[in-house]
Amino acid sequence: MVTEAQVIELIAKQLNIDPSKVKMESTFNELGADSLLTMELLVNFEAEYDIRISEEEAANFETVGDAVKFVMKNLE
Length: 76
Prior knowledge:
Layout: H1 4-15, H2 35-49, H3 55-59, H4 64-74
């Protein structure tokens, strides 16, 4: 089973930052991700967790928490 910590670890790895710096309330912009890097991250979520993220859903991802909640919900 995938945990929130594992999703955060994937985000940290993709953004090449220490996982301890990734907080649920952090925005991707605050973590140094531009829109292209954020889209790459979402593509990695799709591949890693075998889920689909529509453009409309992706537009709602402002914080790490938004992404983590989406991934966790779609893995249930």
